[in-house]
Automatic annotation (TrEMBL):
The keyword Hydrolase applies. Keywords: Hydrolase, Protease. One of its GO terms (biological process) is proteolysis. The keyword S-adenosyl-L-methionine does not apply. This is ATP-dependent Clp protease adaptor ClpS. InterPro entries: ClpS_core, Ribosomal_bL12_C/ClpS-like. One of its GO terms (molecular function) is peptidase activity. Gene3D superfamilies: 3.30.1390.10. The lineage of its organism: Bacteria, Pseudomonadati, Bacteroidota, Flavobacteriia, Flavobacteriales. It comes from the Bacteria. Residues 18-83 form the Adaptor protein ClpS core domain.
Length: 91
């Protein structure tokens, strides 16, 4: 009877980690649900359902993360939200 020896290789994997930022949308008493929903669809590429859910969270919780990604991709989207009169920031 012969025995086979199993050899386990150790492999080092280099991973590049990117710091992800978030656009946080804040509640206000000025903008309507429809305006917030339309703006999220336009600026953040949300589906209508996703935009509606975010607007409800913002209304009841005071804030909601509406987009996550690298800063360079979020900055123009956040600018669109601000230009539409919404309160948002990148964190």
């Amino acid at each position: 009877m012969s025995t086979k020896e199993k050899i386990q290789e150790q492999v080092q994997v280099d991973t590049k980690t990117q710091h992800l930022n978030e656009i946080v949308l804040y509640n206000d008493d000025v903008n309507t649900f429809d305006h917030v929903i339309d703006t999220l669809i336009y600026a953040c590429d949300h589906t209508p359902e996703q935009a509606e859910q975010c607007s409800i969270l913002v209304h009841y919780k005071g804030q909601c993360t509406v987009k996550t990604g690298v800063y360079d991709e979020l900055e123009p989207r956040c600018t669109m939200l601000l230009d539409a009169g919404l309160s948002a920031e990148i964190v």
